[in-house]
Amino acid sequence: MEVGDQVLLYTTRGVFRNPPRDLGRVVGTAVITSPVVPLGSQRQIAGRVYTSGCELRITGLAPPGDGVVLADFVERLEVFQPYPRAWSARMRRSILPLPPRDAEVISAQLEPTLRNPSDTAGAYLERAERASKRAG
């Protein structure tokens, strides 16, 4: 990843600890604003260890519960071929490079749902806080 690269933001089914309600969705767009560098100390998020990172600027964010349900598109996306049924295994990576055509397919569906991040980010933070309290 390099400064200026566009990224799509994905939330998993379990992101808010309610997999039956929360489908895996592409929910936002961002741009990389700093080089990827080693972190001063490792970060662990949801059991996954991260040793490097970068800054990004979120440029669009769908309201919670909106966005693109990725499972609905796996058959059409080159990145999941030739085994589209195994798409969820590919998504277990923290970064999944997309062919340009795949990014266009997803972005065309995502664009109408996007809002200014300052209008929607708070709702994500509230849901995360509630989920964290429920988990104890």
Structural write-up:
The protein is an alpha+beta fold. It has one domain (6-120): Roll (ph1033 like fold), CATH 3.10.590. It is 25% helix and 27% strand. The protein has helices at residues 87-90, 100-110, 117-135, and strands at residues 6-11, 25-32, 37-45, 48-53, 56-61, 68-69. Strands 1, 2, 5 and 6 form a four-stranded antiparallel sheet that branches. Strands 3-4 form a two-stranded antiparallel sheet. Strand 3 (37-45) and strand 4 (48-53) form a beta hairpin. The longest helix is centred in the C-terminal third of the chain and has 19 residues, at 117-135. The chain is globular and about 40 Å long.
Radius of gyration: 15 Å
Shape verdict: globular
Q: Find the count of extended strands (DSSP E, 2+ residues).
A: 6
User: What is the CATH architecture assignment?
Assistant: Roll
Give the number of helices. Answer: 3
Number of domains: 1
Query: Biggest sheet: strands, sense, closure?
Result: 4 strands, antiparallel
Short account of what is shown:
The chain is of the alpha+beta class and 136 residues long. 25% of the residues lie in helices and 27% in strands. The protein has a single domain, classed as Roll (ph1033 like fold).
Features:
single chain; 136 residues; alpha+beta; ph1033 like fold; four-stranded antiparallel sheet; two-stranded antiparallel sheet; 3 helices; globular
List the helices and strands and how they pair.
Blueprint lengths: L5 E6 L13 E8 L4 E9 L2 E6 L2 E6 L6 E2 L17 H4 L9 H11 L6 H19 L1
Antiparallel strand pairs: 1-2, 2-5, 2-6, 3-4
